[in-house]
């Protein structure tokens, strides 16, 4: 009986020990699992921080690239502005030089203008006597303008050049025009025929008399032997005949002294 109790007690002790051991082992497993779960949460949190840092790093990289492009664009723009400023400074320098040169030229242009006008006045007086009064009056009008303060030096010079241009056109044209000549103390109605500046002729309406201006004597000379040619030239000038070769009384050129 006693032995039976001992066995029961022994078995109870063994069972108690087993239950205790099992309980301790289960507690350790729970602790391990809980620790593992904590590490997983920590890993998730760490991964979240890593992802967040990665996103921030990516955003910063993109911002850096954007800012870098803006800086490069500003460098190009600043370089262009530097070139523009350099060009503007050069333009200002050139303009200042032009102003200074214009002042010098303005002082020199008036004496030149007067000399050109005097030379043209002398030339017209020595030229063939066509429109002479009208041409000299134009010269005098410009001369009056040269003494006026209404016009700038450039405008005065332009007016003189305009006279030169008009005179130069006479050298390249032929024309006819009606007028009067004084011969033997009487005025006679004639038709003039001008060939550039190399010949000036006239013919009376009935073609009974033809004359030519003689530069050597500064007078009209009868040239009836050229009546047909002068008559043909007048018709050509009136566009009543085709252009043709004419035999005209033209003075020989003088040798340059």
Protein described:
It is built from four helices and five strands, in the order H-H-H-E-E-E-E-E-H. It is α+β, with helices and mostly antiparallel strands and 257 residues long. Helix 1 crosses helix 2, helix 1 crosses helix 3 and helix 2 packs antiparallel against helix 3. The longest helix is centred in the N-terminal third of the chain and has 125 residues. The protein is rod-shaped and about 165 Å long. The chain starts with a helix and ends in a 20-residue tail after the last helix. The mean pLDDT is 83.
Instruction: State the order of secondary-structure elements, H for helix, E for strand.
Output: HHHEEEEEH
The main pleated sheet reads as:
5 strands, antiparallel
Q: Give me the Rg, rounded.
A: 58 Å
Kindly, what is the distance between the CA atoms of the first and last residues, rounded to a whole number of angstroms? 178 Å
Summed over residues and divided by their number, the pLDDT gives a mean of: 83
Tell me the number of strands: 5
Taken as a percent bin, the fraction of beta residues is 5-15%
Name the overall outline. Answer: rod-shaped
Number of helices: 4
Oligomer designation: single chain
């Amino acid at each position: 009986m006693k032995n039976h109790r001992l066995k029961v007690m022994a078995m109870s002790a063994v069972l108690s020990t087993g239950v205790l051991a099992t309980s301790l082992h289960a507690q350790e497993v729970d602790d391990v699992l809980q620790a593992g779960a904590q590490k997983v949460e920590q890993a998730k949190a760490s991964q979240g921080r890593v992802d967040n840092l990665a996103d921030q790093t990516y955003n910063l990289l993109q911002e850096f690239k954007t800012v870098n492009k803006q800086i490069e664009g500003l460098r190009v723009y600043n370089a262009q502005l530097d070139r523009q400023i350099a060009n503007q400074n050069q333009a200002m320098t050139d303009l200042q030089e032009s102003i200074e040169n214009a002042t010098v030229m303005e002082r020199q242009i008036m004496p030149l203008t007067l000399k050109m006008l005097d030379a043209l006045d002398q030339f017209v007086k020595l030229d063939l006597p066509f429109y002479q009064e009208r041409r000299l009056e134009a010269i005098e009008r410009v001369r009056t303008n040269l003494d006026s303060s209404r016009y700038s030096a450039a405008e005065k010079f332009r007016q003189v050049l305009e006279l030169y241009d008009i005179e130069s056109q006479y050298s390249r044209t032929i024309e006819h025009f009606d007028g009067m000549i004084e011969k033997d103390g009487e005025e006679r109605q004639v038709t003039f025929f001008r060939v550039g500046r190399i010949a000036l002729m006239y013919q009376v309406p009935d073609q009974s008399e033809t004359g030519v201006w003689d530069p050597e004597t500064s007078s009209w000379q009868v040239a009836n032997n050229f009546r047909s040619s002068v008559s043909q030239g007048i018709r050509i000038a009136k566009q009543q005949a085709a252009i043709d070769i004419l035999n005209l009384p033209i003075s020989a050129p003088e040798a340059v002294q």
